[in-house]
Write a structure and sequence with these properties.
Chain B: Its main location: cytoplasm. The complex is a heterodimer of chains A (about 270) and B (about 750). Chain A contains seven helices and eleven strands. By secondary structure, chain A is of the alpha/beta class.
């Protein structure tokens, strides 16, 4: 069985290297793979079935001029059946920032009813501040164990994951969808302030309802996260690291460790 | 011959007046003398030039492309024997980093386009400087932008320019995934109607893979990237003249940016470089194909032949001259050996970036262009590129500097808060947050330091360029236009001093400099006088410090209006790069705990151009620099940081000690209890607000105080104990006289919201 982790890119993806290195530093068997390889448009073809985990990293795929992630999602929908099979085989499909937007646009998240929903259950709109926001944000790990990407974090851990996005405000089709997410344990991270309380802007940098920063599907093997764990792999990548030099590990490391552990056991 | 209706022959055997008329009609931007040289040249050849030849000469001879007014002075002061450590100086400077790698530095102005169309002008400024790095084979890893505007609270145009420029930089930089880590935002009446946009980029490259900006005999020219259109025609001739009310009509001279073409272009260019398939590479910037091919061939000492109809176009019906001089963005010219060209084309195809063979390099020194088989252009490269140089008339202005009398403030608290909230001192957070400053995961020190709830300004950003090395690059920009307005010589010295202070504050050794020299119309002797004084200072101090200029750019014709004496404030904007031996040892400006605060360096009554005197409405004496003391101080502070004695450091600049300590306290969320009576011989307000150079504030643990004193004694640098860091208020006394007593919350509120209130 293959153990590979694929970092899926297309033009405008721009967080692929730091995401790749995050796995490599933990001896993960990761490689960069371009969507043209997956879609069989170039010689060195790949199939998503070759991987146990696919991560769609951050960036501005195709410029995000239409709706963040829409073009990437539309290109991926050409292999919708393979993606459904991938998810149903309990493999991991994750998206960070732009990747999260792609998975939501594709219907793989929140996917409360089917593996990939036919109708849109959620969408991202422009930040409530009406601006691109690059700022440190704190998130609380609120998942009760469903999410396979965050098993190494304890419940209620508060982590610093930096945000950098313009369209991160998630909205749901209806209140029922949000309620279903909550009752299904599909909420994984929520923005909090420095006291650990749910607060508004700027602690919630985009205005997302229920302070949602990351969600998973009903099986816990598709996951999307707005802020960037790969930007806090080491402590010296934290924005305030010089205030406390005794810690080595960055807050994002365990995210990648959780994935590698799952992939190795798969 | 059908196609030749697109190419006109121009008869130059006319009177001087008529010659000027022709130049004007064609938009050449050449003067009588230059047109005369061209006329004589073709007379010798015994033929009439074509329009495409004239247009090409106009590009190559523009101030922007050939530095005709500045080259002689630059050679004399800046470029002379300060080249140690520089491996190659072309589109970007290449400087030694470690055994295997070098870093690349480029700094460019994009002022004229940004004044007409701020969003597009600023965005393409970023795109262009990134390609300057890329064409050396280097991976772009950090962006810097230094921006200068009129007063946005007084005139709407300045506010419009400000918002457009910030959005343009953010939208382009964020999309291509290169972090914007440092820069300057400065407001001054002197930039009204003529804002300055200076963009810099730093890259990293294996020394064995550095690609020169030149062609090679027998090689093919492969044009890659975007298609060529009518956008950006006459960009350089437009940038080589003053803007006028009619400049709005020159919108076609402003290029359009497409970051989502640039992003794969970066991948493709780095891949062909990595595989060793490229002999030469050059960005198509000012002057378009004309300048790129001309300069690549001239540098290689060979000729070139281009089939111009092969250039992929955005629109039909473009004249050959338009194709040749178009400055459409996201294009790169590659010089490729014929046996490697298939592999190169395949790589570009993989990244969906168009690449087309448009010609080849030939022996000789002729640049030839054909159009469907007909020769429409044939110029000697010597004549085209080595064009002209001027020794412009220089008039060094009389400097009137004197200490002026003014009353001591009655209420120090309110004066301090006015200084702290002034436009040039208040927090830049609202702008910094709009740029992604950590994409790439290499930004170890970000533009804001301290607690995440109340961050404050850092002195320099620190980048970790390589995955498997802790060696880092520190980056910082500096220039104080208020000093420049009073005394360009001392102002330029101060800029170098400040760059060094900033780099040293984080623990980096200053290693190279880049300058963008923004000035008014060089045909005015007074402008050339300011230019002369500035480059003289820049050259002298860098030479003494043994820091080379790795990259530079000159932007003339920055004028606020067409009346006399309307040149902008002389603005030699600088950025510096420093080397950090181990990024885990860097320090930040925010106060870390209950410790001691020391002032490094000497304070004089130097308030000229200070924020304090600007509020009061006086001029005063601009700070000078003692280079020897600067050099000793750099060593002492670096030693203190290396030995972990100094745990926080901040340079003292705009707003003096008062503002520096406030920023440190705000970032740390810890107050200070200080007594400035250790500074002797001047009034309290002067001690607080003087902007004397070569000073830092440092935080030190009580146990390390003796080591600190010894470190500085050894280098003969004076230090003064100011007091202790503690509590939640900034309290400053001068002996038994109470000066300041302000809470951190009040300071932070005043300082952090100001820019947002005025701009957004």
């Amino acid at each position: 069985m293959s153990k590979k982790i694929g970092i899926l890119t297309m033009e405008g993806t721009n967080c692929e290297y730091e995401t790749f290195f995050a796995f490599k530093r933990l001896k993960g068997d990761a490689e960069l793979v371009h969507i043209k390889q997956i879609l069989g448009e170039v010689k060195n073809e790949r199939s998503i079935g070759d991987y146990t985990c696919i991560i769609i990293p951050g960036g501005f795929s195709s410029g995000d001029y239409i709706r963040a992630g829409a073009i990437f999602a539309s290109r991926l929908s050409k292999i919708k059946d393979e993606i459904i099979e991938f998810i149903e085989e309990d493999k991991l499909l994750g998206g960070i920032c732009n990747g999260y937007q792609v998975l939501v646009d594709l219907g793989a998240l929140p996917a409360t009813k089917k593996t990939i929903s036919d109708e849109k259950e959620a969408a991202f709109i422009i930040n409530s501040s009406n601006k691109f926001e690059c700022r440190p944000t704190l998130v609380k790990h609120v998942n009760n164990g469903k999410c396979l990407f965050t098993r190494k974090y304890k419940k209620d851990d508060v982590l610093l994951f930096p945000s950098a996005h313009g369209e991160g405000n998630i909205v749901f089709r209806d209140e029922e969808t949000l309620n279903r997410l909550i009752s299904n344990d599909q909420i994984v991270f929520r923005y909090v302030d420095d006291k650990g309380d749910y607060s508004g802007y700027p602690w919630n940098p985009n205005g997302s309802i229920f302070n949602i920063a990351g969600i998973c599907n009903n099986k816990g093997n598709v996951f999307g996260l707005m802020p960037h764990p790969e930007r806090v792999f080491y402590r010296y990548m934290h924005p305030d690291w010089t205030r406390n030099r005794d810690i080595d590990r960055g807050d994002g490391l365990l995210f990648f460790k959780s994935i590698i552990d799952y992939v190795e056991r798969y | 011959m059908y196609y030749l209706s697109n190419v006109k022959k121009i008869d130059l055997s006319v009177s001087e007046d008529q010659l000027e008329q022709i130049g004007r009609e064609m938009g050449l931007g050449l003067n009588r003398y230059e047109l005369g040289l061209i006329k004589d040249y073709f007379k010798r050849l015994n033929r009439d030039p074509t329009d495409i030849e004239l247009q090409s000469l106009a590009q190559a001879w523009s101030e922007h492309c050939c530095y005709k007014s500045s080259k002689n002075l630059l050679k004399r002061f800046i470029l002379s024997d300060s080249s140690q450590g520089i491996l190659l100086g072309e589109d970007a400077g290449i400087i030694d980093f470690n055994e295997e790698y070098a870093y690349a530095v480029a700094f460019e102005s994009h002022n004229h386009p940004s004044n007409v169309e701020p969003y597009g002008g600023a965005a393409t400024g970023i795109g262009g400087v990134v390609r300057d790095i890329l064409c050396m084979g280097a991976k772009p890893i950090a962006l810097i932008d230094s921006l200068f505007f009129g007063l946005p609270d007084r005139d709407k145009r300045s506010k419009f320019l400000f918002n457009g420029v910030i959005s343009g930089i953010g939208d382009y930089g964020n999309r291509i995934g290169v972090p914007t880590v440092a820069g300057i935002i400065y407001f001054d009446e002197g930039y009204k109607n003529n804002c300055l946009v200076n963009a810099g980029c730093v890259g990293i490259v294996k020394k064995s893979q550095v690609v020169p900006s030149r062609s090679k005999e027998g090689n093919l020219f492969v044009l890659t990237g975007g298609k060529t259109g009518r956008d950006g025609i006459h960009g350089v001739t437009f940038a080589s003249a003053e803007l006028s009310e009619r400049s709005e009509e020159d919108r076609s001279a402003v290029q359009l940016g497409n970051p989502i073409l640039e992003e794969p272009l970066i991948h493709a260019c780095l891949e062909v470089t990595d595989k060793g398939l490229v002999d030469g590479m050059k960005d198509l910037g000012g002057g378009g194909l004309s300048c790129a091919i001309g300069e690549m061939s001239f540098a290689a000492g060979c000729g070139a032949c281009i089939e111009i109809e092969k250039v992929p176009l955005k629109e039909e019906g473009m004249h050959p001259w338009e194709i040749l001089v178009s400055e459409s963005q996201e294009r790169m010219m590659l010089s490729i050996s014929p046996d490697k060209v298939d592999e190169v084309l395949e790589i570009f195809d993989y990244w969906d970036v168009p690449a087309t063979i448009i010609g080849r390099s030939l022996p000789g020194n002729l640049f030839i262009i054909t159009y469907y088989g007909e020769k429409i252009y044939e110029l000697e490269l010597d004549f085209l590129i080595n064009g002209i140089r001027y020794d412009r008339e220089i008039k060094v202005r009389e400097i009137k500097e004197e200490k002026e009398y003014f009353d001591e403030p009655k209420d120090y608290n309110s004066m301090f808060l006015s200084v702290l909230s002034s436009l040039n001192i208040c927090s830049r957070e609202s702008v910094i947050r709009r740029y992604d400053h950590e994409v790439g995961g290499r930004t170890i020190l970000k533009p804001l330091n301290g607690g995440i709830k109340n961050p404050s300004h850092g002195d320099a950003a620190v980048i970790k360029p390589l995955e498997d090395s802790y060696k880092g690059l520190a980056i910082s920009a500096a220039i104080n236009p208020s000093f420049m307005g009073i005394n360009p010589y001392k102002g330029a010295l101060s800029a170098v001093d400040e760059v060094c202070r900033n780099l040293v504050s984080v623990g980096a050794r200053p290693h190279s400099l880049a300058d963008t020299l923004n000035f008014g119309n060089p045909e005015k002797p007074i402008v050339m006088g300011d230019f002369y004084e500035s480059v003289r200072a820049l050259g002298e101090i860098a030479k003494e410090l043994k820091i080379p200029y790795a990259s530079g750019n000159v932007s003339f014709y920055n004028e606020r209006s067409q009346i006399e004496d309307s040149q902008i404030v002389p603005t030699p904007s600088l950025f510096g790069v420093g080397i950090v031996e181990d990024i885990r040892k860097v320090v930040t400006s925010d106060i870390k705990g209950e410790n001691l605060l020391y002032l490094i360096g000497d304070t004089y009554e130097e308030l000229g151009g200070s924020e304090y005197l600007k509020i009061i409405g006086k001029k005063g004496v601009v700070p000078s620099v003692d280079v020897d003391r600067l050099r000793r101080s750099i060593e002492a502070v670096l030693n203190g940081i290396k030995n972990e004695i100094i745990i926080s450091a901040h340079d003292v600049s705009e707003g003096g000690i008062a503002v520096a300590v406030a920023e440190m306290c705000m970032g740390g969320g810890i107050g200070a209890d200080l007594d400035i009576s250790g500074i002797k011989g001047m009034r309290s307000d002067i001690k607080l607000f003087s902007e004397s150079n070569t000073r830092w504030l440092v935080e030190v643990k009580k146990d390390d105080e003796k080591d600190l004193i010894r470190t500085f004694m050894e280098c003969s640098v004076s230090i003064i104990r100011l007091g202790e860091t503690r509590g939640d208020r900034l309290v400053i006394k001068d002996g038994n006289k109470d000066l300041l007593n302000v809470s951190l919350i009040e300071m932070y509120d005043t300082w952090s919201r100001m820019l947002e209130k005025i701009i957004l």
